[in-house]
Design brief:
Helix content is about 70%, strand content about 0%. The chain is mainly alpha-helical. The chain has two domains: about 5-95, Rna Polymerase Sigma Factor, Chain: A; about 130-229, Winged helix-like DNA-binding domain superfamily/Winged helix DNA-binding domain (Arc Repressor Mutant, subunit A, Orthogonal Bundle), CATH 1.10.10. The chain is elongated and about 90 Å long. The N and C termini lie far apart (about 80 Å). Mean pLDDT is about 80; it is low at about 100-105 and about 110-130.
């Protein structure tokens, strides 16, 4: 790593912002690489669309670049960026669903009921071990996180996945810290309930003995009985 890169990575948020304002492309590149995943996850939690989330992140960086002179360090630079992404994602969501009801992140979501997805997981029989099993577990978690009510989903992503503090999350979403705590607690409860249902369904098929294995045993026993005649 070059000395210039090291210096940029150790710089404070204000220093990075001023460098970007002075058209330091290396500072901007490092800022993006440090925040890409968090911003993508934030946009994805609102839009539930991979391609559109990427578009939002790119557009948000352009918006941030144009407004970087307004950054004064009142919040972390990463939190400031998350807020821009949230606003851009919500704007796109409203355009996409002009005729549908939009649940605002600062609205009351406690009356939305339980999880939207109460269906069983894909047939668990025959899943491979190791990496494939971890990939399936990740897919299952992503599926149920996607199914969280709108107002809970982004809070959960920022708190549990990105490990932002309550205060950082509240600042990024412009909601009270008490609301962050309430929604995070409720989101975890909903996920636990959903995953418990998945386990219950999976237990019904655990150590399944059907199909070819069952046929093999039946035929084997009948064959041996035939030999005894």
């Amino acid at each position: 790593m070059t000395a210039a890169l090291q210096t940029t990575e150790r710089a404070t948020d204000i220093e990075i912002a001023r460098r970007i304002e002075d058209e330091d492309r290396e500072a901007l590149r490092i800022l993006m690489r440090k925040n890409n995943q968090r911003l993508y996850r934030t946009a994805r939690s609102i839009l539930k669309d991979d391609a559109e989330a990427e578009d939002v992140v790119q557009e948000s960086y352009l918006l941030a670049y144009r407004a970087i002179h307004n950054y004064r360090g009142d919040a972390q630079l990463s939190t400031w960026l998350v807020r821009i992404v949230v606003n851009e994602a919500l704007s796109r969501l409203r355009k996409r669903k002009r005729t549908a009801e939009i649940i605002s992140l600062d609205g009351d979501a406690m009356g939305q009921g339980g999880m939207a997805a109460e269906h069983a997981a894909d047939d668990a029989a025959g899943r491979p071990e190791g990496e494939a099993m971890r990939a399936e577990t990740r897919r299952l978690l992503e599926q149920h996180i996607d199914a969280l009510p709108d107002a809970f989903r982004t809070v959960f992503l920022l708190r549990a996945v990105e490990e932002m503090t309550v205060e950082e999350t509240a600042a990024a979403l412009d909601i009270p810290t008490a609301t962050v705590r309430t929604r995070f607690f409720r989101a975890r409860s909903l996920l636990r309930e959903a995953l418990a249902r998945e386990i219950d369904f999976a237990l019904e098929d655990a150590f399944a003995f059907a199909g070819a294995r069952c046929d093999r045993i039946v035929e084997g026993v009948l064959a041996r009985l035939a030999d005894l005649r």
